[in-house]
Amino acid sequence: MSQDSTNQQWGGRFSEATDAFVARFTASVDFDQRMFRQDIQGSVAHAKMLCAVGVLTTTERDDIVRGLEEIRMQIERGQFQWSVALEDVHMNIEAALTEKIGLAGKKLHTGRSRNDQVATDIRLYLRDEIDFIATEISRLQTGLITLAEQESETIMPGFTHLQTAQPVTFGHHLLAWNEMLQRDYERLLDCRKRINILPLGSAALAGTTYPLDRHMTAELLGFDRPCENSLDAVSDRDFAIEFCAAASLVLTHLSRASEELILWTSAQFDFINLPDRFCTGSSIMPQKKNPDVPELVRGKTGRVNGNLISLLTLMKGQPLAYNKDNQEDKEPLFDTIDTVKGCVRAFADMVPALQPKRDNMRRAALQGFATATDLADYLVRKGLPFRDAHEVVGKSVAAGIASNKDLSEMSLAELQTFSDLISSDVFDVLTLEGSVQARDHIGGTAPAQVRAAAQRAREMIKTR
Ligand code: ARG
Q1: Secondary structure in 3-state letters for 349-372
Q2: In angstroms, what CA-CA distances link 136 with 12, 18, 250?
Q3: Pocket test for ligand 1, best of 29, 116, 326 (most atoms within 8 A of CB)
């Protein structure tokens, strides 16, 4: 990167060159160069519009478009010389264009400011990234739904307070994760609607004296419409904050799922095997296989939450319109994008590879008297008031603890000592299978309901 200290972009007003440290301190090119495609895309649309309204000749437009395409290819090939003295991606590309095509290059910035330019670039960039993240979330959801269908009959303990509560199917549990991600997907697409509005044409803050056709630029760039207010357009970063908030929820959900995977791969739970390729070993303890991928996802949630707070804090004190503070929006935003992409990808790769240990799950569901509520409900159906049923079952659980037997493992005679309302049909509800099958309504854990829910979830994804 070259560091020449004169700045040809505003040299006119200045009597001395920028201090070398200040040039580095104020530069953003190190991190905003990743938006080079969007910067060029925006400039091409701007030049086409300027030509359509008579500000540029067709030759000037064609030179600009060709020059910018060449620059794009140069950057893609790693042959572009970025300069810190030229501060940011915008001025680097504009200077290179002028060097390449001469006079016409100097006309590109007509009716435009870096303030509306950068706001446009970020929106274009984020829009592309959201589309990618949404596709990855769909891939993850498809993996969850497929596994849920496969595991619709697999019984595991369901927990509240991390204590065994009632039996659920593993498929049902996986579809709970899918619901979280479904909301995340919808949130991202909703946020995209407010991103997809064009700042360009707002110029520095007040609009411009040129007869711009902002609707044309919007259409060329695939935006729904131009921003309504120039002051707001150059200073609004709500869209980045909204994205970061949606991203925080994605990570919160993945972090919760990670926590469960970490528990389930422990020797104490031993519900699933996570293939070796998603784990690492220990340099000192030869027996160790650590669930690094879920642990890292859980850990990375912290930085994504931090980025959200950074952006909120960045904006809270800013008067209208653009302030240099806004340059600080990029690193937290980009870090969030990169982190979410990495974590969703890791999960999308990992979920189809999960190997459930069905016998262990079932065995765990037989501990902790998971069907106690079913026995109480049974007694209520036989005419006992719920409170009395609760008492009867409490006593039978106490007996089960003493004799180290699950309710479903007791004989009919044993069970009848707690209540004479109990008859042989009790085993239909007391078994794990009976318990899950009985929760046979929309949203319930019955295998048939899980399969139907998976089918509906699949349909939702198909319509995307
Ligand atoms: N690099 C700047 C940013 O990221 C671009 C806009 C600068 N505008 C200005 N008037 N200094 O926000």
Answers
A1: HHHHHCEECHHHHHHHHCCCCCCH
A2: 49, 44, 12
A3: 326
CB 333 within 8 A of CB 315: no
- Domains recognised in the chain with CATH numbers: 18-110 (1.10.275.10), 115-363 (1.20.200.10), 372-430 (1.10.40.30)
Answer yes or no: is pLDDT of 4 > 60. no
Q: How far is the CA of 31 from the centre of ligand 1 (A)?
A: 13
What is the pLDDT, as a whole number, of residue 5? 46
- DSSP string computed for 6-20: --TTTGGG-SSPPPH
- Residues in the chain, how many? 464
Catalytic residues: 161, 282
- Provide the pLDDT for residue 324: 98
**Structure-block tokens of residue 328:** 């600080």
Hey, whose CA ends up nearest to atom 11 of ligand 1? Answer: 324
- The protein residue whose alpha carbon is closest to atom 2 in ligand 1 is 327
- Which tokens belong to 116? 């509306």
Mutate which of 88, 90, 121, 330 for ligand 1? The one with the most ligand atoms within 8 Å of its CB, which is 88
End-to-end CA distance of the chain: give it in Å, rounded: 43
Query: Nearest-CA neighbor of 352 among 141, 132, 136, 135?
Result: 141
Q: What's the rounded Cα separation, in Å, for the pair 307 and 315?
A: 13
Q: Are 443 and 169 in contact (CB under 8 A)?
A: no
The model's pLDDT over 272-285, given as tens digits with 9 standing for 90+, comes to: 999 999 988 888 88
Check if the beta carbon of residue 422 is closer than 8 Å to that of residue 413.
Answer: no
Q: Could you report the per-residue pLDDT of 193-242, keeping only the tens digit for each?
A: 999 999 999 999 999 999 999 999 999 999 999 999 999 999 999 999 99
2: number of Cβ within 10 Å: 9
Q: What's the pLDDT tens digit per position in 410-436?
A: 999 999 999 999 999 999 889 999 999
Query: C-alpha angle with apex 151: 271 to 184, nearest 5 degrees?
Result: 90
Which tens digits make up the pLDDT trace of 90-142? 999 999 999 999 999 999 999 999 999 999 999 999 999 999 999 999 999 99
Q: Which residue has the tokens 């596994």?
A: 147
Q: What residues are in contact with ligand 1 under a 6 Å CB criterion?
A: 28, 32, 88, 114-115, 118, 322, 324, 326-327
